[in-house]
Hints:
By secondary structure, the protein is mainly alpha-helical. The chain has a domain at about 25-95. It has helices at about 5-10, 30-50, 60-70, 75-95, and strands at about 10-15, 20.
Amino acid sequence: MSENETKKDEIHELAGGWITERGDAPVPLFLKLAYAGFCIFGVAYLINYWSGETGHATRGPLVQEINKVMQTPGTGFHLFIGVTLLAFVIGLFWVTFRRDTH
Length: 102
């Protein structure tokens, strides 16, 4: 057996043997999409609830009153988290779907 064949057949154990992976195994597409999907959901959640959950039956009136007092429901912190998460999603797509050079 050549050195490349033995590298491909090596099995790596992670988490004390709970997770095993074969060397040079590609990451499945569904797993790549799952990572990106969770991040996109986070961005969509921030956009959807920028002003809080104003339409909720029990919390809605309280959130509306807090928004009146604060006068700025979407804070700079929300914007920072959204931009950071969006940059992460773009970077994740770039790393995930680029062609492997090795």
